[in-house]
Design goal:
Chain lengths: 430, 412
């Protein structure tokens, strides 16, 4: 490996108008791989003006639950998404804001946004306009339902895309309603599709010299990730039922209680050979000879009783101990890790998965690293997340050649700034 | 922006990809490359093929290795080659193909490629421009390297399972294959990044993806809450914890007679005010228990009881449109079968009709994105060994005699 490896995306400049998680997850990867990602925010959208200690405690994402004087720079959620990126503010509903944005488009490679589809045209910076300025620009729009169609204006989040796309139908306690992901899963999943699409377009541009427009619908991401099930329904006529942690061809298969408060181990016994090994590990108790459990068919048909008996074996044991005993016998098993256990997981840490950052306003924080591991041009963590507007001097001064006076004027006229602006609140009914 | 311009040449048409995948992770990655025109050669063991052929679901429940939905969906657009990699002849043929290939994808357990003498060091010596991607459950190193896993175990060991489900019941995994799908997407981006670097640096590289790391990198509050304040994110049922009503609620049954369900995603104070106005419950804003979505989240059960009468008077269709007309996030709660009839997906042409000689014409999920200059192509999955002779004759110049010999020897 060269001593100073170059990221694969060195020299690629990204204008990132995206918010919340789906788009930022994508641009986080691009930044980790060496792209110069300039996050651009309007200050009305940065967040509320005041975060109280009470709210901070509910969210839990401010260091030591202390929002501080500039809470927007201390929110670890934003700082996780913002690592390796640069930040400027720009009010795009002003003429000067739009003019500066267009100048940036001229010297950039990628624009990404996840606004509702009406926003970019209303601001006068939709793809046809930007393409005229820079024909090589790659422009990725990723609204919830896509930029066209009867639901194009639907307001959506990962939490509503989840049930709409069919994803949530694949999770739930036996016989109960679809269950939402506890993690707004469609957000990062859509971000992954956007990342691949953008890099495909970049690869293509190296050959054709032309940019292109990428339209991504987050709702379609969920349906693409359950494509085997929708095709399976057409072939078999069966809608996948909700079966908790059960499995259509394996038993025992589930999460079993372990020693301690809310400790669980997931166990998946996948074959007859594994069943024999499993019985051996748990000490060949009397009940395994019960007629009901002798065959896979029997175990599938008597899962409630089987799970009860397996749970009696796990209940007084440490979850890690159960995982090791079973894995050593060739049986898939894993501790149901909580946040603490995940961050301290021996395997992830030995692989150097987590990245530590020293942020000027949020202090030392540990974040998930980059799963894309490249042998010659590895992903790197080289810069903590920016503070709001931190890179005005570089982006507006160095890249666009504005003088200090011009930048000061932009500050004084509110086109750029360093603090959130109060959002117009919907008037309270009298 | 509804129109997609005239189909251009596939963005990846120049690439030759060897796909040694089985089941989901490697296969979906290869499918994505094939969708943009890459020549993806799926290499399967003679006779049995990819294990996904045994999984289903099958037409009317009758197992058929050429009609497994899992295989059919994950291998669209590929060419099928059978090759016994464990045989000397097979490994030699494979290396001859590697010499011409741009990309190799494999998702065997760690150590398997090495045991066949087909590790990256060996293959990159044959072809220094090769980009090789390995996807595995826990990566190629570390204490869990040889651990076994399926979807549930990956969900458990990536911290995703603990946060799904009711707090008073066991944590929930999902059916389906989300961890494998995500690792496929990381591999796809990793391969594209390596190809972009190859354009500049002239050489290939090794792309290593761990399914556990893919899922562990997809947390929002979990890891961040812990690093910031030591908070351990707990599961919160069909709700989203810190804000409410972000949830799935019962409502009046629709025309199909199934129990009514609707999804709400209210997290913003403005949306919350509008929602209460619509339900004629604005007085709740003056109640310290319900004055904003965060406080509402602390009193969810009581709140749900207050809004329940209105929901039971309206169908999901009425609720979604009434709320969305007021810019309040709401959505349908669909089974996978419902999504096939959803008008939004229909409008965008998401479902692709693909014919297959064994399983017939079916509607396949497409990609969730369009590229105007390089739209994806959708073609059916290969049959087992369908293109064996074509590939070996075309790529390696094997004549009929040689092919017959290999068939007889069980190498192909």
């Amino acid at each position: 490996m060269p001593s100073d490896p170059k990221g694969p995306l060195d020299g690629v400049r990204v204008l990132d108008l995206s918010r919340v998680w789906a788009g930022p997850h994508c641009t986080r990867i691009l930044a980790d791989l060496g792209a110069e990602v300039i996050h651009i925010s309007g200050r009305r959208l940065v967040g509320r003006r005041v975060v109280t200690r009470e709210t901070a405690k509910i969210l839990g994402t401010f260091p030591d639950n202390e929002p501080g004087e500039r809470h927007w720079n201390r929110n670890v959620l934003n700082n996780d998404m913002g690592r390796n990126k640069l930040d400027i503010t720009l009010e795009l509903d002003t003429e000067r804001g739009v003019e500066l944005f267009k100048r940036l488009v001229k010297i950039s490679d990628i624009v990404i946004e996840n606004y509702s589809p009406r926003v970019m045209p209303n601001l006068g910076i939709d793809y046809p306009v930007l393409k005229a300025i820079n024909p090589a620009i790659i422009f990725c729009s990723m609204p919830g339902y896509g930029p066209d169609g009867p639901f194009q204006h639907f307001v959506s989040y990962g939490t509503t895309i989840d049930p709409h796309s069919g994803l949530a139908s694949m999770m739930g306690y036996p016989g109960e309603e679809p269950h939402m992901s506890g993690n707004a899963y469609p957000d990062p999943a859509s971000g992954m599709f956007a990342t691949g699409a953008i890099m495909t377009a970049l690869f293509s541009r190296h050959r054709t010299g032309k940019g292109q427009y990428i339209s991504l619908a987050q709702a379609e991401s969920g349906a693409a990730l359950t494509g085997e099930a929708s095709l399976g329904y057409q072939l078999s006529g069966v809608v996948p039922p909700r079966i908790g942690n059960g499995h259509v061809r394996k038993a025992p298969h589930g999460a079993y209680p372990c020693k301690g408060d809310d400790k669980w181990v997931a166990i998946s016994v996948g074959s007859e050979v594994q069943w024999t090994s499993f019985c051996d590990v748990i000490g060949d108790p009397e009940w395994i000879n019960d007629e009901r459990f002798r065959t896979l068919e029997g175990r599938m048909g008597n899962q409630a009783e089987l799970n009860q008996l397996v749970g009696e074996w796990t209940r007084d044991r440490n979850a890690y101990e159960v995982m090791r005993l079973l894995q050593d016998a060739g049986i898939a098993a894993g501790v149901v890790l909580n946040a603490d256990e995940l961050m301290n997981d021996a395997h992830l840490n030995e692989r150097g998965f987590f990245w530590k950052f020293d942020h000027p306003e949020a202090g030392f924080q540990t974040h998930a690293g980059q799963p894309i591991r490249l042998s010659e041009t590895p992903a790197r963590h080289y810069r903590p997340a920016p503070t709001l507007g931190q890179h005005h001097p570089y982006v507006l001064g160095e890249l666009l050649g504005l003088s200090d006076d011009e930048i000061t004027d932009l500050e004084e006229t509110g086109i750029i700034g360093y603090t959130p602006l109060v959002r117009e609140r919907y008037p309270r009914p009298s | 922006m509804a129109t997609v311009s005239e189909p251009g040449i596939g963005a990846l048409a120049e690439l030759m990809v060897l796909d040694l995948s089985h089941y989901v992770a490697g296969a979906y990655c290869g499918k994505l490359l094939a969708a943009f025109g890459a020549e993806v050669i799926k290499i399967e063991a003679p006779g049995v093929g990819d294990g996904a052929r045994q999984i289903g679901p099958f037409p009317d429940g009758n197992p058929d290795p050429e009609a497994s939905a899992l295989y059919l969906y994950l291998n669209t657009g590929k060419k099928g080659l059978t090759l016994d990699l464990a045989s000397d002849g097979g490994a030699t043929i494979f290396k001859e193909l590697v010499a011409q290939a741009d990309v190799l994808i494999e998702n065997f357990a760690p150590g398997v490629m090495e045991s066949m003498g087909l590790d990256y060091a060996t293959l990159s010596a044959i072809n220094p421009r090769l980009v090789m991607a390995s996807i595995s459950n826990f990566g190629q190193s570390g204490p869990y390297r040889d651990y076994r896993a399926d979807t549930m175990v990956e969900m458990a060991l990536s911290g995703q399972m603990y946060i799904n489900g009711d707090p008073e019941r066991e944590p929930l995994s999902s059916t389906g294959y989300q961890p494998s799908y995500q690792s496929a997407l990381y591999a796809y981006s990793g391969i594209m990044a390596a190809l972009i670097a190859r354009d500049r640096d002239g050489k290939g590289q090794y792309v290593e993806i761990s399914i556990q790391e893919a899922m562990a990198s997809e947390h929002q509050f979990t890891l961040n809450g812990f690093t910031a304040s030591g908070k351990i994110r707990m599961r919160s049922g069909n709700r989203y914890g810190s804000v409410h009503p972000t949830t799935i609620l019962p409502c009046k049954a629709g025309e199909d007679g199934r129990p009514g369900l609707v999804s709400l995603g209210i997290s913003d104070p403005t949306q919350y005010v509008l929602f209460l106005q619509l339900l004629d419950l604005s007085e709740l804003l003056d109640d310290p228990k319900f004055s904003n979505p965060q406080l509402c989240a602390q009193n969810q059960v009581e709140f749900d009881a207050l809004i329940r009468p209105w929901f039971m008077e309206h169908t999901a269709d009425e609720i979604v449109h009434a709320l969305q007309d007021n810019r309040i996030p709401a959505a349908f709660v669909n089974e996978v079968s419902d999504v096939l009839d959803d008008p939004q997906y229909e409008f965008r042409g998401f479902w692709k009709e693909i014919d297959h000689p064994v399983s017939g014409t079916r509607r396949y999920a497409g990609l969730p994105y369009h590229l105007t200059e390089a739209p994806p192509v959708y073609e059916r999955a290969n049959l087992l060994g369908e293109h064996t002779d074509e590939v070996l004759a075309g790529k390696l110049g094997y004549d009929e005699g040689r092919l017959a010999e290999l068939h007889e020897g069980g190498v192909i």
